[in-house]
Amino acid sequence: MLHPSRVFTLVLLSVGLASPSLVGMKRDIADCSASNRARGAAACTRVMNSGRLPRRQFYIGYFNRGAAYCKGGNNKRALADFNRVVKLRPIFAKAYYVRALTQHDLGSLDDSLADMDRYIVLKPKNWLGYYSRAVLRRKKNDADGALADLNKAASLKPDATEVDLMRALAYSDKGEHAVAKAEIHKLVAARSNDATAYYARAIVSFRQASLMPRRPISTRRSR
Fold it and tell me: What is the pTM of this model?
């Protein structure tokens, strides 16, 4: 998972509705535009096939349908729709972001990274792009690259707890466990009710302990 919330914010469709049979179309528009409706994919297809959606807005229909497919667990169909979005509107930054998430879930880390790079070029002031790219870089064992992105994300959004936690884990990846624990201790002190911080601290402590030399077991019998 690249980001804990992973919520698709869908763009509302603007469709001409000047005919008598509007009830079904209105429902389809609502279903296609909502991010939490399982029937959204079929609704988007009907809207695009209706002839009412202006061609210049087809990328929105594909984007919303791709999001619906993704939420239904059909990542391959989602990817096909996000590919269409990018082809129709190459400057639509959000398409690169959601396509990166989808490719990540399909196991294509290199393609996911390439899309996150494009997203950051288009949205250089959005901390979420840097955070998500850091997650990908950690998966590719690039701790230094991940830390660079996390530092940038922190500069853009200083109160993002997930950035601080991920940064601590990246330091731990590099073997800098003391630095990692210091980062997490600060978070625990500031957010004593944050279970994730305790979990991260446990991970770092376990890693550190596994590297410590074991005390030899004495073979002498006590008298």
Answer: 0.81
